[in-house]
Write a structure and sequence with these properties.
Number of domains: 1
Order of helices and strands: EEEEEEH
Number of strands: 6
Helix content: 10-25%
Distance between the termini: 34 Å
């Protein structure tokens, strides 16, 4: 099992967790969080809960949208890490602006 948190600056962080068996990803979560009003809030979460790879997008008003990724878990984990690394500032801004 691999688990870590990376501070991204500007009250944002990436939380990463994955498990493998014989080099194959069997479970993962990669989540972007923002520190808002004294607490860490989810913005974007890629994970394999419910038995499939998907992305959950959270909104400041509490709304959440789930989208299936139709990818193998290893591919989805790579996509999640790359997407959050590249786009975290945009996701954070949109979240804080209610977009």
């Amino acid at each position: 099992m691999v688990e870590y948190v990376i501070p991204l600056g500007e009250n944002a962080r990436k939380r990463h967790y994955h498990e493998t068996i014989k080099g194959k990803v069997i479970a993962f979560t990669v989540q972007l969080e923002a520190f808002v009003n004294g607490e860490w809030r989810e913005i974007i979460r890629y994970d394999s809960a419910h038995g499939f790879a998907h992305i959950d997008r959270y909104y400041l008003n509490g709304r959440k949208i789930k989208k299936e990724l139709n990818l193998e878990l290893t591919e989805a984990l790579t996509l999640a890490d790359e997407d959050i690394k590249k786009n975290w500032k945009v996701y954070q801004r949109d979240f804080l602006e209610g977009k």
